[in-house]
Amino acid sequence: MNKSLTILVNCTDEKGLIYKITRVLYENGLNIVKNKEFVDEANNRFFMRTETEGEADQKVLLEALTRELPPNSRIEVVPDRKKKLVILATKENHCLGDLLMRNHFNEWNAEISAVISNYDLLKDFTERFNLPYHHIPADALSREEHEQLLISTIRNYEPDYIVLARYMRILTPGFVHQYKGKIINIHHSFLPAFIGAQPYRQAYERGVKIIGATAHFVNDHLDEGPIICQNVIPVDHTLNASEMAKAGKGVEKMVLAQALKLVLEDKVMLSGNKTVIF
Amino acid sequence: MNKSLTILVNCTDEKGLIYKITRVLYENGLNIVKNKEFVDEANNRFFMRTETEGEADQKVLLEALTRELPPNSRIEVVPDRKKKLVILATKENHCLGDLLMRNHFNEWNAEISAVISNYDLLKDFTERFNLPYHHIPADALSREEHEQLLISTIRNYEPDYIVLARYMRILTPGFVHQYKGKIINIHHSFLPAFIGAQPYRQAYERGVKIIGATAHFVNDHLDEGPIICQNVIPVDHTLNASEMAKAGKGVEKMVLAQALKLVLEDKVMLSGNKTVIF
Amino acid sequence: MNKSLTILVNCTDEKGLIYKITRVLYENGLNIVKNKEFVDEANNRFFMRTETEGEADQKVLLEALTRELPPNSRIEVVPDRKKKLVILATKENHCLGDLLMRNHFNEWNAEISAVISNYDLLKDFTERFNLPYHHIPADALSREEHEQLLISTIRNYEPDYIVLARYMRILTPGFVHQYKGKIINIHHSFLPAFIGAQPYRQAYERGVKIIGATAHFVNDHLDEGPIICQNVIPVDHTLNASEMAKAGKGVEKMVLAQALKLVLEDKVMLSGNKTVIF
Amino acid sequence: MNKSLTILVNCTDEKGLIYKITRVLYENGLNIVKNKEFVDEANNRFFMRTETEGEADQKVLLEALTRELPPNSRIEVVPDRKKKLVILATKENHCLGDLLMRNHFNEWNAEISAVISNYDLLKDFTERFNLPYHHIPADALSREEHEQLLISTIRNYEPDYIVLARYMRILTPGFVHQYKGKIINIHHSFLPAFIGAQPYRQAYERGVKIIGATAHFVNDHLDEGPIICQNVIPVDHTLNASEMAKAGKGVEKMVLAQALKLVLEDKVMLSGNKTVIF
Fold this sequence. Notes:
4 copies of one chain form a homotetramer.
Chain A: E1 4-12, H1 17-27, E2 31-40, E3 45-53, H2 58-68, E4 74-79, E5 83-89, H3 94-104, E6 110-117, H4 123-127, E7 133-135, H5 143-155, E8 161-164, H6 173-178, E9 183-187, H7 199-206, E10 210-217, E11 227-234, H8 241-264, E12 268-271, E13 274-277
Parallel strand pairs in A: 5-6, 5-8, 6-7, 8-9
Antiparallel strand pairs in A: 1-3, 1-4, 2-3, 9-10, 10-11, 12-13
Helix pairs in contact in A: 1-2, 3-8, 7-8
């Protein structure tokens, strides 16, 4: 017996929460393997993530926790299961390639179901890994029409998360709402610097001495969603914009992989427009 | 009312520990502000650090926790109080200077009681901050005789921790045992690389591309005590040994300051020859 | 004989420049100790910094170089001399303290002539290092009137550079022009993110996972001058804005010190609104 | 016309070297695109790397430079050409995968000719990229016998460099001498810490707070060859040895890729047991 459940709690802060939650787990025969909590004092919110081992009925557990915790608490009891991903890409190969390789070698408790792109450039590469590649061109289509085609393809795969692996088109609020909290993007700058198009060009023009990458959930505002991971590398005056773009590929794929790992392990909780990373 | 206590537990792992500990805190009217735990599966040990607010009798709390937890548990109930430090230095000024400045501006919940050195080079500088400076030369003395003089001076200050701010003499096991778990050293390499004398010289000879610093507790074996913090900076072929030594000063003082901050906030627990950092 | 001169060239790029410059140096009996060059292809500019040893007449050298290089070249022949600094501060002590300590221990080929502040908070500290502290309050003065007082004090010291060590007032274009290319500021964010007031508050609100610091020359546009150095540290959801401000102090003082070191060693050349760092 | 030659010089230091070298280039009609030099004062050696554009006869250039420079100078005139690589691997896929992907997308001025392994685990993966995979088992063979098989396979490809992408067998001096200065290894620690087998296990036992990777040329002494690149990532007490191994994969593949890029661009010169990186 080694079944594992992860309990996620997001509720109003009050005295005794850890005690009450761990008592429920104890009384249901669960052993705590990892436990992390955070009190957001500014907003009086309590966050907790608890990894357990032992067998328990998910529904019973959820009901018991609901009884103990304040009204309107958000409580999740998450079983350990393989999550499904759909990747959206455009022309760049480095983030997609890194994800396909990790998928191929079963590095994560996840599987990529399909790759979708508005170009066919990455088709041959994707198919070498025996994965479906959907080429959905955007030409002559309105943004909404194109997204309708995306959605009808995505729907077939019922993904847990949609990963934008340098997908270079802006998504409409309609699309974003359809997959609220489930779209992860990698932006090629350390946000909030260099929002929008051509961040390396912007970085070059500004003469910065570091460039970076940001993985974030997508919301209605371009490049303004909750940040999951960020990292940077040093640069200097000898790099022009396109050399910065090349140099940045390594940090982009690393940051995206780190963020995805955290999300797939249920270690990322949303707190307004920010993330709590456990 | 905002009295704060920190509870530190290090015991054999078993089911229900978080529940049992937090129940005691709850029943004693304490609110948990921060809680971190770690299960060392390889050694079947459980570690927990809990910051609380609310008034409680330290002794009552300790007894209640002792009743709940396995035999031979190490339990500490630590009140929030200013800790006292004695600094040992030799000739280098950068780590000492950084500590004196932070002390002068009350950056930490600690106070430096005195500086002791086998040289008088840093006397004028130390006294500018109105701190006692004890010049205890080692010339013509055996290692033990010199340390006896150190000990009789240190004794007057009853420090919580002794900080070796680039103190360049090796301490005997006798001295180390006297202050077991209370001596913090900054070593000017990323240990275990370049143990012992002249690590920058060694780094230069080896042609490494990173140099670093390690803050650690001192034990009987030179540069082998439990590591608290480490960091590195990039270097290249243009730096000779003495330029590396200069370049490394910044990371040395930063790593020492980070380690001391963690220790002073009771966030460092010992686990064999390693540290658990909460 | 070990006199050292540094030659700085910034001119239109053309074939043979390194050959022509090094020929002049060779014919004047100088040995090259260090040589770095950079061709900015986008703007067709050539930059070179050459450290030499050997005795030569500065004026003769400058004339010979001027003859060899394209018209309108900017050529400097810089002798190795102690540079003078005036520090402007407000209330924060960490950057000032770090600079005063480095000055006290003669870490650089520079000397701090005086500290000027609109508050008297750092007076006692500064005077411990036997340095003049000018308290010039800004109350009831227009920005221009206050700056006139600053200027008349600064004038007495004829500084090579003015260092803004967390000086929290915005300088007028009039002041900036008076000291064009000679004012170095440390901004407490990785620019261009979080320009202006309270960057740590902005960083906290945005939920970033890295914070940083930027040392730059001051120009007419707030926080938009040429960047010299930048660095970052990781943060997470557990830090509020004031904890980020505390955590950022270390990187601020390190970045400012790195930038100053480069400037004092004549390793920073201006290229439009960017820097070339040799 | 945009032919490019790179000139590499390693000679005894003396006055006028840059002048003499650049005069030859100038007189041969070459334009210098990039120029870097380094004087190793401790050993009185001069290193220079010059990228040029323009057409020139390689042999004529080499002879002219040889006439100008001190006897026994090592001078190379390197044309810009695609280099050939043979990869040796064992069971780990992350470094190999990263290299194959970069090769597939023509990221470098190089091509992987073949992959050789003592296991057949990575055969399917390699062949997806249409590259030959040679499975040469070591079972029941002496070290020398196995290496003879390797050599006869490698010989068919005449590679410029042999890359050990986590190849887990120790090479004999015989093999190393055959490919002197041409074998690049990635070691999974920040050398010289944790030489030899199971560096992550060693790192875990020592309780370090950073782990890293080192790319180096292979010489006769295990993990003691000239270091090209190193980098680290932070770790903490929560990671056991196998989790450190997983966490370290990202930095391993990044460091190996950085080192290879430098080598392929002729930016790495050997200086005794160290490297000069231009």
